[in-house]
Sequence to fold (146 residues):
Amino acid sequence: MIILPISLTIAAAAALLNLWLSIRVGRVRTKEKVFIGDGGSEAVTRRMRAHSNFVENTAFVLILLVLVELGAGSSIWLWAVGALYLVGRILHALGMDGMAWGRMAGTIITMLTQLGLAVFAIFVVYATPVSFSTTAVTTTEAAAPK
Fold:
């Protein structure tokens, strides 16, 4: 069995963050009395976009995180990248509510995280020595008992 501690931890944290973002959308929907769509409410639209943006980006980050951890192993820098991504997504969500620097910081962190993981994934593929070997197959025949 292969256990990927970094990927599993970051994925679990991302799931919790997704729930938090969902609750934030629900709260503003209740406050604005909007239950379908955005109802023309800027607050609902902002919260919905923060949640949607999280979902749009997190799948790529988690897939890259898993593949990099499988290809290169667990490391402290991979923990840092995963944690930084989550901090960036929290900043982005808060920024969508008006903390403008948080939105910008979260966006930059998200883009740099994806770029860094993608570049490193490509590096792992092409920097890892690959050897091809062949194995001869021999057949054996069983003799019938006498």
